[in-house]
Amino acid sequence: MTSEQPWLGALRARGRARFEALGLPSTKAEAWRYFPTRSLRGVDLGAGRPAGGAPDRLEAIDPARVAAARLPGTVACAVFVDGRFAAAASDLGELPAGVTIGSLAAALANDPERVRAHLGSVAPSEGAALVAANESWFADGLWVDVPANTAVAGPVQVLFLTTDAAGPATHPRNVVVMGRSAELTLVLGWSGPAGRAYATNAVTELVLGDNATLRLTNVEDEGAGATHVHHVQARQGRDSTLRTFALSLGGESARTSIRAELGASGASCHLDGLYLAAGAQRLDHYTEVDHQAPHTASNQYYAGVIDDKAVGSYLGVVFIREGAAKTDASQLNKNLLLAPGATANSKPQLEIDHDDVKASHGTTVGQLDDKALFYLLSRAIGPEEARGILTLAFAQDALSRLGDDAYAATLVHRVAAKLRAEAVLDAEAELAPGDDDDDDATPEGAE
Questions:
Q1: Of the candidates 138, 147, 79, 60, which has an alpha carbon nearest to the alpha carbon of residue 105?
Q2: How far is CA 236 from CA 96, 98, 152, 244, 267, in A?
Q3: How many distinct structural domains can be found in the chain?
Q4: Cα–Cα distance between 251 and 193 in angstroms, integer?
Q5: Are 307 and 339 in contact (CB under 8 A)?
Q6: Helices (H) and strands (E) in the chain, counts
Q7: pLDDT interval class at 56 (50, 70, 90)
Q8: Which of 193, 244, 325, 331 has its CA 20 to 30 A from that of 82?
Q9: In whole angstroms, what is the distance from residue 224 CA to residue 202 CA?
Q10: What does the alpha-carbon distance between residue 229 and residue 255 come to, in Å, rounded to a whole number?
Q11: Is the pLDDT of residue 301 over 60?
Q12: Using CA atoms, how far apart are residues 206 and 204, in angstroms rounded to an integer?
């Protein structure tokens, strides 16, 4: 293990001081109003952080688990085990010249000044308690550096796997730097054991140069006893495009927050998501889009399916600053409640300080359409399958935003499995393009 750079030690000390001063976030804060952090009380968030370095933890992970989690169509896969890069379990393939994908700890050791220019510059810890905790206690995380005018040909998958050997909390810190006109698709996946309580407190910083394009899919599927908090923050250059999709499936309580800063003309972001909450789960999504420059655009679509006594929440704020003329911003959040005890919280907000803009927001909360359900039952479709058809139809509006990469189809099947609607996809597969059967089991207006 090598000693840390003095500037990094100072960064950590600053984070710890800020976390100790702030304490855990409270629901009295508007951004946290729907997500109590009581599951983190009593957790030693700093336990187990090494003094420096990031040893390979291949011995702690079953290779079959990595193989089972690998998504089709991905050209590379970086694996992190209990918050540390596992080189031997990773498959980084043949990346274009100049592209670096791997361990943040290794990058800190090999090219500290390059990392220093970006680490902590996009996601500040001031006033952000759990970002500060991450700043203090991160051991490793993802480092991506894509040079100007370089496109990675296919999606890159990143697995964050928690094992029974992990401490009470891990703090992955991810930094993605995109040069001018660079292109990349990243798929982050989070999972862990079902039989224990643990916490993941992750921060991802995104730097998009002028005309860069980044697609980021985030799949949260933590173990049943987990508390998962992941903050993503992006700083975008002129004419850059950020597309994110946040899929929330697992954990006892999980929160994904995304802030996009559109600081240059022509920058745009598309923030989409789907959350499926059941049992006693609490799944929370928070977004901020800050239009700081003219001719910027944002579009947000989040959908929630909430069952049993679960709670699903979306709170999003769009800021349109003075001088951000010709901004185009939209927000829409839809929720489907499947049980009387299910709860949906929804609060899209606009704060507009300029007149010459186009902005809209909306929210809906509803239940399955009784007429559509009766229609399916009248066609000899069983009650569970009928509910699955209608629920998956509702979710498809969000899922369609995943794109047409091969991995997207796998994620759609994962969603269908949780909704107990795999039979719907099987039937669709039988009706392949060119089939003469145009009959559709889902009537118009089934949503």
A1: 138
A2: 23, 21, 19, 13, 6
A3: 2
A4: 10
A5: yes
A6: 9, 20
A7: very low
A8: 244
A9: 18
A10: 5
A11: yes
A12: 7
- The helix, strand and coil proportions of the chain, stated in percent and rounded to the nearest 5, come to 25, 35, 40
Q: Is the dihedral of CA 89, 92, 98, 103 positive or negative?
A: negative
Alpha helices, DSSP H, located in 153-288: none
| 316 in a structural domain | no
Whole-angstrom Cα distance, residue 342 to residue 32?
A: 20
pLDDT at 47: 74
Please report which confidence band the pLDDT of residue 57 belongs to, taking 50, 70 and 90 as the band edges: very low
Radius of gyration of the chain from its Cα atoms, rounded to whole angstroms: 22
Burial classification of residue 379, based on how many CB atoms lie within 10 Å of its CB (0-12 exposed, 13-18 middle, 19 or more buried): exposed
Domain boundary among 220, 238, 262: 262
């998009």: which residue's tokens? 208
Mean pLDDT of 88-113: 95
CA atoms of 406 and 345, how far apart (whole Å): 33
d(CA 393, CA 217): 21
What pLDDT, on the 0 to 100 scale, is given for residue 238?
A: 98
Find the helix or strand (DSSP H, E) in which 228 lies. Answer: strand 226-236
Contact yes or no for 130/42 (Cβ under 8 A): no
The residues, any chain, with a CB within 8 Å of residue 326's CB and separated by 6 or more, are 294, 295, 356, 357
Q: Quick one: what percent of the chain has pLDDT higher than 70? A: 92
Whether residue 435 is predicted with pLDDT greater than 90 in this model: the reply is no
Q: Are residues 63 and 202 in the same domain?
A: yes
From residue 406, alpha-carbon distances to 239, 402, 403, 430 in Å are 27, 10, 9, 18
CA–CA dist 11, 309 (Å, integer): 41
> What range does the domain containing 437 cover?
369-447
Asked whether residue 420 is domain-assigned, the answer is yes
Can you give the pTM of this predicted structure?
A: 0.93
Strand pairing class (100-103; 142-146): antiparallel
End-of-domain residue from the set 215, 246, 262 = 262
* Token pair recorded at residue 28: 């009295």
Ramachandran sector of residue 205 (left: φ over 0; alpha: ψ -120 to 50; beta: rest):
beta
DSSP states of 52-117: S-----GGGS-HHHHHHHPPTT-SEEEEEETTEE-GGG-B---PPTT-EEEEHHHHHHH-HHHHHT
Structure tokens given for 188: 């982050």
